Amino acid sequence: YTEDYLPGPLCAERNAAYARLHGYGFVSHVMSAEDMRAALEPRACQWYKILMLRWCLGSDFACRYDHVVWIDADAAVLDMHRSLGELLALCPQEVVCCEDCSAASALNTGVLAVRPGAYARELLEALWDERRFWTRSYHEQSALERLLRRRGELPVAGSAAAAG
Q1: What are the boundaries of each domain within the chain?
Q2: 97 forms bridges with which residues in the sheet?
Q3: I want to staple 73 with a disulfide (CB 3.0 to 4.6 A). Which of 1, 57, 148, 151 is the partner?
Q4: If pLDDT is split at 50, 70 and 90, which confidence band does 70 have?
């Protein structure tokens, strides 16, 4: 997150405490808004999570973990005693995110878990290249939704499969 983002330190402190409690690794990136813009240009700042996940999966960092999890700077763990590992064990998918409660996007990438491997690396590379959403509303969320629908990995909105 950027140095001037007020919820960032509070959420990072809470999430770091959760990680320590459960023996998970935790990394927080704090930088100036100028540095973030430079790292992402021409993309909007929401794309930073995709940049960081790509970096994690392309490094030795990911080899130490079953999942690499991104948590937005304005998101904090509420139930400190519930294990993320137990929750993710219920999800066989390589990439896990939440459903968005709004009509704006089907997906919410505020918390995004990826299992290190070829599928996740390839998906994140393809997502990074979704130029149409670099500066549009819901940015990487809309791009991920579009990409997964195009691949047949997410039901098409309005279909019987999407309805449940």
Answers
A1: 7-154
A2: 112
A3: 1
A4: very high
Nearest to 15 by CA among 24, 2, 4: 24
User: DSSP secondary structure string, 120-155?
Assistant: HHHHHHHHHT-GGGSSSTTHHHHHHHHHHHHTTSSP
- Beta-sheet pairing, 68-71 with 95-99: unpaired
- Can you read off the two tokens belonging to residue 138? 């819901």
Note whether 113 and 95 are within 8 A (CB).
Answer: yes
CATH superfamily of 7-154: Spore Coat Polysaccharide Biosynthesis Protein SpsA; Chain A (3.90.550.10)
Using CA atoms, how far apart are residues 32 and 150, in angstroms rounded to an integer?
A: 36
Q: What per-residue confidence (pLDDT) applies to 164?
A: 37
Among 69, 68, 138, smallest CA distance to 106 is for 138
The pTM assigned to this predicted structure is 0.86
Q: Which two tokens stand for residue 15?
A: 């999430």
